[in-house]
Specification:
By secondary structure, this protein is α+β, with helices and mostly antiparallel strands. The protein is built from eight helices and five strands. A five-stranded mixed beta sheet has the order 1-2-3-5-4, covered by helices on one side.
Length: 312
C-alpha cells in the first residue's frame, strides 16, 4: 500500500491514541493508559482493515477499466456489498456493457458499408465493360443504323452507372440521420427548429457511428442554448482539404473569456444547462481529432457557430 492518504490516516489515529493514553495515564494511571492504548489500537486496526478493503475494491475497478480500455473482454465484477462502491461498480458495468454493444454495432455497420461498397463496385464492372465494348464497335466503320443502336446502348449503360453512383453517395446522409435521430424529442420539447442543408451528392469518408456521436453532441449543445422558437441550422460542404459540418444556433454569443475553455473536460460555462457535466463538447473534439479532424467554435452575427472538420 503506497497511498499517502492511508499512511496519513494511520499517523493521525496513532497520534490520537498516544495522546489519549497520556491523558488517561495522568488521570487514571497505568490502567487508564493501557485501556486507552488497547481501545485506540483496536479502532486503528479496524479503520486500517476497512480502508485496505476499499482500496482493494478500487484497484479491482481500475483493473476492470484497464481491460476495457485495452479492448479485452473483462468478466462481470463480483463480490458486491451494499455501499457507494457497489453502486459505482454497477454503473461501470452498465456503461462498459453499453460501450461494448455500441462497438459491436459499429463493427456491424462497418461490415455493412464495406459489403455495400464492394457490391456496388462489382456491379459497376458490367456496365463499364459494355460501354467499352460499344466504343470498340464505334471505332470501326459501321453503317449509320448500327452506330445509332450502339449509342443507345452506351446511354443505357451510363444511366445504370449514374444510378449506382447516386446510391453510393446517399450513404453519406446516414451521418446526419444517426446524429439527429435521438434528438427529436429534445428539439420538440424546447420548441426549437432543426434545419438541415446537406446535398445528397456530398460523400463523407468517416467513421459513421463516432462521427454521428460527435455531431449529436454539437446538435444537443445547440438546442440547449437556443431560445424557444429559435432555429438550429446544419450545413455540409466539401472543400479541397476537408469535409465540414457547420452547426449554428440563434442563442446569445459565447463570452470571449469562455471560448478558449469550451472544449475542456468537465468545464461548465456560466450559461451551461442544468445537469450538464461538461463532456459533450470535449468528446466531440476528441472524436474529430481521432479521425485527423477538429471541432472549433466562434461567434457570428447570426449566433454561435461550431465547425466539425474531417480533413481529406
Amino acid at each position: 500500500m503506497h497511498s499517502r492518504e492511508f499512511y496519513r490516516m494511520l499517523a493521525v489515529m496513532l497520534a490520537l491514541t498516544a495522546a489519549a493514553a497520556v491523558g488517561q495515564g495522568i488521570a487514571w494511571g497505568v490502567p487508564g493508559a493501557a485501556a486507552a492504548l488497547l481501545l485506540g489500537g483496536a479502532l486503528t486496526a479496524l479503520a486500517a482493515v476497512y480502508t485496505l478493503r476499499r482500496y482493494r475494491r478500487i484497484g479491482q475497478l481500475s483493473e476492470y477499466l484497464a481491460q476495457v480500455y485495452t479492448g479485452g473482454q473483462p468478466p462481470r465484477l463480483s463480490g458486491q456489498t451494499p455501499g457507494e462502491l457497489s453502486a459505482l461498480q454497477d454503473d461501470l458495468y452498465k456503461i462498459t456493457s453499453i460501450l461494448q454493444q455500441q462497438a459491436a454495432a459499429l463493427e456491424a455497420d462497418k461490415r455493412f458499408l464495406a459489403d455495400s461498397l464492394s457490391d456496388i463496385a462489382h456491379q459497376l464492372r458490367t456496365p463499364l465493360s459494355a460501354i467499352l465494348l460499344q466504343c470498340d464497335f464505334l471505332r470501326e466503320e459501321l453503317p449509320p443504323g448500327d452506330a445509332e443502336e450502339a449509342l443507345d446502348q452506351i446511354e443505357t449503360q451510363t444511366g445504370r452507372i449514374r444510378w449506382l453512383v447516386e446510391a453510393l453517395l446517399r450513404l453519406s446522409r446516414q451521418v446526419l440521420q444517426r446524429a439527429a435521430g435521438g434528438l427529436a424529442e429534445l428539439y420538440l420539447k424546447r420548441g426549437v427548429e432543426l434545419q438541415v442543408d446537406c446535398p445528397e451528392t456530398l460523400f463523407c469518408v468517416c467513421d459513421l457511428e463516432w462521427t454521428a456521436e460527435a455531431l449529436a453532441n454539437l446538435l444537443k449543445n445547440a438546442a440547449e442554448h437556443t431560445p424557444p422558437g429559435g432555429r438550429v441550422r446544419v450545413e455540409c460542404s466539401c472543400q479541397a482539404l476537408y469535409f465540414e459540418f457547420r452547426v449554428q444556433n440563434q442563442g446569445t454569443a459565447i463570452p470571449q473569456e469562455e471560448l478558449p475553455r469550451l472544449f475542456e473536460r468537465f468545464w461548465r460555462g456560466a450559461s451551461a444547462s442544468p445537469g450538464s457535466v461538461g463532456i459533450g463538447l470535449p468528446l466531440a473534439r476528441s472524436i474529430a481529432r481521432g479521425q485527423q479532424g477538429d471541432v472549433t467554435a466562434e461567434n457570428t452575427p447570426e449566433g454561435p457557430l461550431f465547425r466539425l472538420r474531417l480533413f481529406r
